[in-house]
Amino acid sequence: MMKRRHAIAYIGLFFLWLTGCTLFKRRSPPPSNPATLHELDRLRFAVTDVQGEEQLKRDYEQFRQVLEEVLEKKIDFVPVQHYTDAAIALQLNKVDLVLAGPSEYFLISTRSRELPILSITRPNYYSAIAVAAVSGIESLSDLKGKTIAMVKVGSTSGHLGTTKLLLDAGLNPKSDCKIVMLGREGSLEALKNGEVDAWGGSLTDYETFFNSEGFSETDFPIIARGELLPDDIFLVNQQLGEELARDIKTRMFDAQNKLLTAIAATEGNQKYRNSRFVNFDASQYEAIVNLYHNLGYTDSLP
């Protein structure tokens, strides 16, 4: 039954590849293969793990304004409802610049050859598994037969990273325990309310949520934490060309102090506190690819 649920969830994930092509029709494309930023009227910017325009403006408006100054170009948000929408928009030339997580980068790379221009580090980017202190659960082996709340299928920290922790402990996430996808806040609320036996997701989300609720790690101890996860990535639409991509990269690197201050200024982006821009390193993402293979998900990829 669990295997069937995972299959259905993943089929739904990639069904968006087929149906999403109608989502972006109203936005006009930029000039074909412009040589410089000056030839563009504007740049269109999307973030893969933010759902909807309201949240995009809430978390990235300050960053958007500073990026406009740095690139000397008007920047429009392209809201997405799901991170696969960004890949569709890139294919249809409906977005120019995308901020993607490691898992989303892998999914996008299976569809097209976009240009990764730089990465943004996340110093506290770990997957963790936590339980209620009163549960009596002390180790991952105690989770056999238990229900674990995670974030969403394909989430780097809220699915893949936590699943790797289970696999490394000798647990089969498809048969040894029950996984329920409840969203970022919903999964943590479920643990707090005793609706699930354990929670798996981003360490930053865990700390932010329970600190705001007045709890400590004593109340909800972490029983496992993974290795540092790969960086997030800024991608440029390949149709803009390598010369323009290099120009954007150079400007962002040169202005990284004020760009990083802006992106970390909102409560929703505390994950970027103490971050820095670094050169993109493809080898960082091999672990993500291997995990998709180990879970059998690459059989479903287009």
Automatic annotation (TrEMBL):
It holds the Pfam family Phosphonate-bd. It comes from the Bacteria. Gene3D superfamilies: Periplasmic binding protein-like II. PROSITE patterns: PROKAR_LIPOPROTEIN. SUPFAM superfamilies: Periplasmic binding protein-like II. This is PhnD/SsuA/transferrin family substrate-binding protein.
